[in-house]
Amino acid sequence: MELPLTSQVYLLAYNTDKGRLTCNGYLGYVIRAAALTELHQRGALSDADGRPQATGTKVSDPLLAEVLAAIAAAPKPKKWAWWVHRGQTPMFRAVQQRLADDRVITTERYRMLGLFPATRVKLHEHRAVSQLRSTVSHTLNGGSADPREGALTALAAVGEIRIAISRAQTRQHARRLESLVGQAGPALPALRKVIRDHHAATQAG
Q1: Please, what is the average pLDDT of the chain?
Q2: What average pLDDT does the segment 18-27 reach?
Q3: Who's near 204: CB < 8 A, 6+ residues apart?
Q4: Distance in angstroms (rounded) separating the CA atoms of residues 76 and 71
Q5: What digits encode the pLDDT tens for the residues 100-117?
Q6: pLDDT value at residue 1
Q7: Most buried residue among 6, 86, 113, 162 by CB atoms closer than 10 A?
Q8: How open is the CA angle 191-1-33, to the nearest 5 degrees?
Q9: Phi and psi (nearest 5°) for 59?
Q10: What is the distance between the alpha carbons of residues 144 and 165, in angstroms, rounded to a whole number?
């Protein structure tokens, strides 16, 4: 069974050599963008003047359904970037918990330096990550890709999942990546803005 795009993004950010997640500070944003992208690809969301709009199409994935319901129930339309930013931590935790429930990963709570609460993540099978990286590499280098593979590659690049696409590769394949970002839909430019704002806020702080 193919993993949801949100789970694929989570696993793609896992460093199998060091046994930990990368880009923890904003991985939730990338996962939120993955959810919006999948809803858009399924036809459950359309773009209305730079804002996502529910089309009435139902989805069975409970995490996607929750995002879709929130958008449909919003009193006023919000921009894509607003929805990428909203609830990123709960979304991250929900995807992590689903992977744990499906026994793809194991999580363990501990205290970093004996003080700060943190979560240790253990991946049970490295093959899934290897396959995702191969898909991204193939797509990045011009291989034919279905919309989900193209979206995953675009999310990895815009979401700065460097374990999958390095800075050098981002520069080298800039034209290819911009094409994939455009094909993936409006959540990707929104993610780019959210991460840019995140970095600016971090540097300012």
Answers
A1: 93
A2: 86
A3: none
A4: 9
A5: 999 999 998 878 777 778
A6: 58
A7: 6
A8: 5
A9: -130, 150
A10: 18
pTM for the whole structure: 0.94
**Contact between residue 52 and residue 86 where contact means Cβ atoms under 8 Å apart:** no
Tokens encoding 137: 């590499």
Q: Is residue 122 within a helix (H) or strand (E), and if so which, with residue range?
A: strand 116-123
Buried (b) or exposed (e) across 3-16, using 16+ Cβ within 10 A? Answer: bbbbbbbbbbbbee
**If you average pLDDT over residues 70-90, what whole number do you get?**
96
Q: Rounded to an integer, what distance in angstroms lies between the CA atom of residue 41 and that of residue 101? A: 26
- Asked if residues 99 and 11 have their Cβ atoms less than 8 Å apart, the reply is yes
Interacting residues of 5 by C-beta distance below 8 A, sequence separation 6+: 34, 35, 37, 38, 148, 151, 152, 155
Mean pLDDT of 50-71: 97
Q: What six digits make up the tokens of 41?
A: 């690809």
